[in-house]
């Protein structure tokens, strides 16, 4: 049976980080060790950490933001083509002017709020605004080399690292649920940056309410198994218990059964995908980059972000990282914005 494994940088050779072990040893242990990699190991990145600087950032000089940056109200309103016939009840010039003034004021206020939020969270520049969700969703297929025996014939969920799109967007995904930082929730609400969470029950059960607040902000809560095991070492039935059991937890606690599943460490075999399908899973998104507080890792040899890339991070804090989740988000946004990418919601493209 074909085995597909990944290199989960946050967990080394399948072990939980030292700080994380101290917090969770009394609750659960991550089982299994990493198998030999069949995909290229992700190399480390070298972006400059975000944070306060001595120089004025690009948005400090005014409300327009960096050159080429889009945002609510960024740019003039396009006038529609004049009607061929006079409408029965034409608006008066005063009413039309008043409506346009309100539109301009609303757009200006939204733009001003985004600039203020970027300044408040010490970003290098204002995050770009993503385009509207596509009316026609892209066709998602399994990435070459990530398929299992009988993948297409069995109708197994596609495994992918990038969404096929020409939009200059990336998708932020955050795994496990170990760190529950309220400042992170405030930051993401303030900046209005979408992301998708993949949760494991043994880490979230001490505070289901934290992720309920996240869900109320529009965040999709998805499946990362009950106990974060190394799935290929388990039988089909045990894998099914891990995946379907987490489906039930999320449905019971949050009212919605997920369609997305990410296997722990990115490792899976045919039984993993069969079990996921039996539980109602339709997609298995992995990742093309991973962001930490102090660097990036890349799957591709040229270490470049591509349109539609899925970016991985984890719910971690100072016990595991050299910083906090807001520090990680700052590094993430500074990099993708500088490269000309907006952050979109993964579920909107599936």
TrEMBL record:
<feature type="region of interest" description="Disordered">
    <location>
        <begin position="1"/>
        <end position="23"/>
    </location>
</feature>
<dbReference type="GO" id="GO:0016810">
    <property type="term" value="F:hydrolase activity, acting on carbon-nitrogen (but not peptide) bonds"/>
</dbReference>
<feature type="region of interest" description="Disordered">
    <location>
        <begin position="47"/>
        <end position="110"/>
    </location>
</feature>
<dbReference type="Pfam" id="PF01522">
    <property type="entry name" value="Polysacc_deac_1"/>
</dbReference>
<feature type="compositionally biased region" description="Polar residues">
    <location>
        <begin position="93"/>
        <end position="103"/>
    </location>
</feature>
<dbReference type="GO" id="GO:0005975">
    <property type="term" value="P:carbohydrate metabolic process"/>
</dbReference>
<dbReference type="InterPro" id="IPR011330">
    <property type="entry name" value="Glyco_hydro/deAcase_b/a-brl"/>
</dbReference>
<feature type="compositionally biased region" description="Gly residues">
    <location>
        <begin position="62"/>
        <end position="77"/>
    </location>
</feature>
<feature type="domain" description="NodB homology">
    <location>
        <begin position="168"/>
        <end position="350"/>
    </location>
</feature>
<dbReference type="InterPro" id="IPR050248">
    <property type="entry name" value="Polysacc_deacetylase_ArnD"/>
</dbReference>
<protein>
    <submittedName>
        <fullName>Polysaccharide deacetylase family protein</fullName>
    </submittedName>
</protein>
<dbReference type="InterPro" id="IPR002509">
    <property type="entry name" value="NODB_dom"/>
</dbReference>
